[in-house]
């Protein structure tokens, strides 16, 4: 029989989940405060949900590969190779689709503007992924030091970190375009 989860760890997990959900809400509120300015760069607004999903997926994949110390090095190498192959294709797809949808909605797309948006999407996602790798690894070390099972806690933490990093990158991109 599996031992029951201690009461204090359950409460800590509930509090952690609440804090992580609140962090995601803060990003949404921040976007609402600057919504007029955001409409001036419609393609990035269209790309944001897909970028957030990609960052979350990469965070989940990264966090799920940290729990097995015996195969960590080999699995991490495979993960990095998979990311190097999938990232450009995914980022280019998000760029193309968001520019296409924005064009269909009446947004005037020039070649220069399309290249700038694509570069910003690639750069933001690339920086977020690299920063996410580092932060997730540090979170893993901290959780191990606190003797908290990383398999149960690191994936939601990683997703929140990825979302916060992406929203921060999105804010920086927005400031650059305005």
Structure description:
By secondary structure, the protein is mainly α. It is 85% helix and 0% strand. The chain starts with 6 loop residues before the first helix and ends with a helix. The model has no long low-confidence stretch (mean pLDDT 75).
* Percentage of residues in strands: under 5%
Order of helices and strands: HHHHHH
Radius of gyration (CA) equals 19 Å
> Helical element count?
6
Principal-axes geometry comes out as elongated
Distance between the termini: 59 Å
Overall helicity? over 70%
Structural class label: mainly alpha
Biggest sheet, open or closed, and with what strands and sense? none
Mean pLDDT: 75
What's the count of strands? 0
Low-confidence stretches: none
Features of this protein?
single chain; 178 residues; mainly alpha; 85% helix
């Amino acid at each position: 029989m599996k031992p029951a989860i201690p009461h204090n760890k359950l409460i800590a997990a509930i509090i952690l989940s609440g804090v992580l959900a609140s962090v995601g809400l803060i990003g949404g509120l921040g976007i609402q405060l600057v919504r007029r300015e955001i409409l001036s760069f419609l393609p990035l607004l269209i790309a944001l949900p897909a970028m957030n999903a990609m960052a979350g997926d990469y965070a989940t994949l990264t966090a799920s590969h940290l729990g097995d110390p015996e195969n960590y090095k080999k699995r991490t190498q495979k993960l990095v190779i998979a990311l190097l192959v999938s990232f450009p294709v995914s980022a280019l797809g998000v760029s193309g689709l968001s520019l296409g949808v924005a064009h269909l909605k009446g947004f005037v797309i020039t070649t220069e503007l399309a290249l700038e948006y694509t570069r910003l999407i690639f750069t933001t996602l690339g920086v977020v992924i690299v920063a996410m790798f580092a932060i997730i690894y540090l979170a893993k070390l901290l959780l191990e030091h606190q003797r908290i099972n990383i398999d149960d806690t690191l994936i939601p933490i990683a997703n929140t970190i990825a979302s916060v990093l992406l929203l921060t990158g999105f804010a920086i991109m927005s400031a650059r375009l305005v």
